[in-house]
Every structure is written in C-alpha cells, then in structure tokens.
Amino acid sequence: MKIFNLQSNAKINIGLNIVGVLENGYHLLDMTMIPIDLCDNLIIKVEDKSGDLKIKTNKKDIPVDSSNILYKIYIKFYEKVKLAPLSMEVFLEKIIPHQAGLGGGSSNGAIFLNFLNKFHGNILSFGELVELGKSIGADIPFFILNKPSRVQGIGEKLQEIENNLKVSLVIIKPPFGVSTVEAYKQMKNIDNPRKSNIDNIIQGLKENDLSLVEEYIENNLEEALLKSDKNLIEFRNKLKEVEELKFFMSGSGSAFYAFLIEDIDEKISKLRHRFNDCEIFLCNFK
C-alpha cells in the first residue's frame, strides 16, 4: 500500500460576468479566478490490486457514495484510460466551507484527477484532463491548471494571468449556503447586469494596483441573488456597515472576501467579534 497526502486549495473570483447562455442551459462566463491558500486535505491510500474507491470524510453532510465528486472522477478517469481501477481509499478532511463559492468540491475533484493521472505516468494530456474535468464540473478545468487565470466559456477556456497584488485576504462565510444552480436561475431577474471590466482588473493585478482592481469588480450572480435571497440581502447589508473594508462575493456565494494590507490582526479580531456566527479565514494568494 502507498499513502499520499495532498492539499486541495480554494479560489476566489475577482470579477464575474455572465455573457450568454447556451441552448443546454449552461451560462457563458468571463471572470478572473485566483487560487488561495485555504485548503482541504486528502489522504489517499492506493493498493496494488484492482478494486473500488472508498471515501471517508470528517463532515457528516458530505456524501461518500457515487454522488461524491471524487467517485465521479475515479470512474471517468479509469473509463477514459481503459485500465482496471485500482483499490483506493480517500480520507477527505473538509476545511473549505460548502456552498460558499470558493470551489472546494471542484478543487477536490481536480486535485484527485491530477493525482490519478500522475500516478499512472501522465497518461492523459492537459487538454484531455480539461475535457474530462469539464464533463463533471465547470470549475474543474481551472483547478487542473490552478494558476491565476482569466476564465471564459463555461469554464474551460483558460488564459493564465499575472498576479502581483501584495495583499492578504479575509474570507467570511455566513451560517447559510447558496446553491450554485439556484444562483444561476436567479439571473432571469436582471435585464442589464453591471459588468466587471476584466481587462482593467487584470491590469491592476499585474501592476499591484488594488484601487484599480476594486473599482472594476462586479459579480452578476451576487447582483441576481440580491433580488431574491433574503438571507444574503441581510448579510450583505451587515457587511456594508464595516466601513474600513470593501467586501466582494466569490462565485455564487455565500462567502465574501475583502483585501487586507495593514492592521490585519486588529481587523480580523473585530470581524470575529462582530460576526461570531460566521466562519472567518485569514488567507493569502497561493
């Protein structure tokens, strides 16, 4: 038996535009995604015999059957490479909050897919990994690359970008989640969504210009959800009362982030006191 310890990191969206809808219902996107150092842990045990995948986790609300993204990756990978599946056990220690817009599940899937491919001698190319990944989850291609990127299409078109922003991040996750499917459904409630200027955001990231980045961040999913989600509306209003920080929603929510440059410990302490029912993480770009 061989044992491997892997980390599976989260992401934030710095700007998210929805630019169209395909006939199959998938939304076309234009956004930036940046890896951060908030991580889940995967302990993978591989036996030198054919078998099945067994999943264990520290969270009761995470399924461990065939609906788990790790199992979907496992099945699809071995179908693609036409090899007998190896007997494996994965213990998934979840730290990244669920239904937060931080990409935890997609990251788990992508990191496991990269692991399987490397274990079998890089049998699949990067392009083949992206194709396999996007058939399971739209954010998986980004996590296969796992570098600051402009992400377009349904998530499969990746353009690596330069991130020189010298900041820390605070992530705050309220005691409720948002369904990604529900978030996209709410797009019908807005006719002319406000658009992020992705080009300017990319320029700001490259030039370490935080004011330029913050000026042009919009998130169409947040805009849509704030038309109907009472929990999110109430939480967003509470965040606006924190005058020293600007908060932005990541992905489909419900987590928000703010950039930190100075007095970090003091600001984090105040947030923990003020939002004592929330999960709060101090993070950095990965």
Polypeptide structure, described:
With 286 residues, this protein is α+β, with helices and mostly antiparallel strands. The protein has two domains: 2-160, Ribosomal Protein S5, domain 2 (2-Layer Sandwich), CATH 3.30.230.10; 168-283, GHMP kinase, C-terminal domain (Alpha-Beta Plaits, 2-Layer Sandwich). The chain contains ten helices and ten strands. It has helices at residues 69-81, 104-119, 126-134, 140-145, 180-185, 198-207, 210-215, 220-225, 230-240, 264-274, and strands at 2-21, 27-50, 53-57, 86-93, 149-153, 157-160, 168-173, 248-249, 256-260, 279-283. Strands 1, 2, 3, 4, 5 and 6 form a six-stranded mixed beta sheet that branches. A four-stranded antiparallel beta sheet has the order 8-9-7-10, with helices on one face. Strand 3, helix 1 (69-81) and strand 4 (86-93) form a beta-alpha-beta unit. Helix 1 (69-81) runs parallel beside helix 2. The two termini are 31 Å apart. The model has no long low-confidence stretch (mean pLDDT 96). Catalyzes the phosphorylation of the position 2 hydroxy group of 4-diphosphocytidyl-2C-methyl-D-erythritol. ATP binds at residues 97-107. Belongs to the GHMP kinase family. IspE subfamily.
Number of DSSP strand runs: 10
Major sheet description: 6 strands, mixed
Rounded to the nearest angstrom, the distance between the terminal CA atoms is 31 Å
Question: In one word, what is the shape?
Answer: globular
What would you call the structural class?
alpha+beta
Assign the CATH topology of the largest domain: Ribosomal Protein S5, domain 2
Total helices: the number is 10
